[in-house]
Amino acid sequence: MSFSDRFAQHQEFFSSNTTRDLTWRKQQLQQIKRLALENEQLFLDALYQDLGKPAQEAWITEVSYVTGDVDHVCKKLNRWAKKRSVATPIVAQPGRSFIKPEPQGTVLIIGAWNYPMQLILAPLVAVIAAGNCAIVKPSELAPATSKLLAQLIPQYLDNNAFTVVEGAVEETTALLALPFDHIMYTGNGQVARIVMAAAAKNLTPVTLELGGKSPVYVDESANINITAQRIAWGKWMNAGQTCIAPDYIITTKNMIEPLVAALKAQITQMFGADPKQSESYGRIVNQRHAKRVSEYLTNVDVETGGEFDIENRYIAPTIVINPPLDSPLMVDEIFGPILPIITIEDFDSAKAFVKNREKPLSAYIFSKNKQQCQAWINEISSGNQCVNDVIMFNAVPELPFGGIGPSGMGQYSGKAGFDNFSHLKSVLVRPFLKDLPVRFAPYSELKFKFLRWIR
Question: Is residue 197 domain-shared with residue 235, that is, in the same domain?
Fold first, then answer.
């Protein structure tokens, strides 16, 4: 069956109103949970094959993330789906006004390779919660996980409503030509522009989850050991291939030496003297990306790490001190296990440094200074933030996840995901009672004065 035929089948099924039934939605959501739990080891094996992910890391960031998302959504879905009453002004009285969430139709989900299970199934949870059908396109750069999703989704979910399409550019291009009701893409800005251009031809709304260079500011009041432990975990998890991972650190000259020492200690504690031998350290997704990341180490001051093995997709946890600000390391999103540390003068310099660059997906600050933390929250524009930690906002299901500007548009996770993939329809209901004549022509000065008065 062609892509257009599958799309037409989903649209026809959507028109049957089956997906509007909350019982059907919850049943499909529970099937996603079953899919994840009953095939947990298969997913752990696939994720190891694609990215060398340690089992515990894969379980936390992929399998349990999805099952926890299902539990949260099912618990809240009845409340989210209810009509939402709003006040009716005097000019529309008597009457009642409300917002009615309704499904959009058929959604295209294009996943990413760095979290290839989570970034298909978590958006799908939101799409189903809102009552939509979907065609999902896993990343071809994570072939083992893509193949597994293509095998399992048809076994667990309603085939009238959901389809998996495997493939690369050709298949994605063909899908983008179809008049979807919403498109969600997770990936890089270059491809996002292609997605938006294709969506514009059908006036299709898009949700883009991209990335950027997420900064970390560490001031002299921070607890250095806790700071280093949390940064090291967030940076070198999944070998740095996380869109919300710390991309670079900015700190004062006095902090460089103790911070580097603490980070080195954490690398050894987490991954041993030789991270290449560690069962807790992942691999770059393919040789092409490994080569790309390794080239960032040219003509820079490597403080620790720097070893790489392109054939085996390995790049060591690496710290670089004060690379040139116009170097690829400080211009491109690294998306790998290299952590630059940049020296700045003070907090104001740190804010200026971040503000002068594109808005990041995440921005982090480590400080005991409450005024500085509040100023960071107030003044630094980013998709998401943590104070004295990294990434952990993603563990709070009611916090929307999404970027701003070059780091993305639209949000999902929890209620934000439900709303994102719903149409929030505005409704006013009025009885057949006679209206005041002031509303209708012919107009007069007296009517005009009365309208001004009631407004």
Answer: no
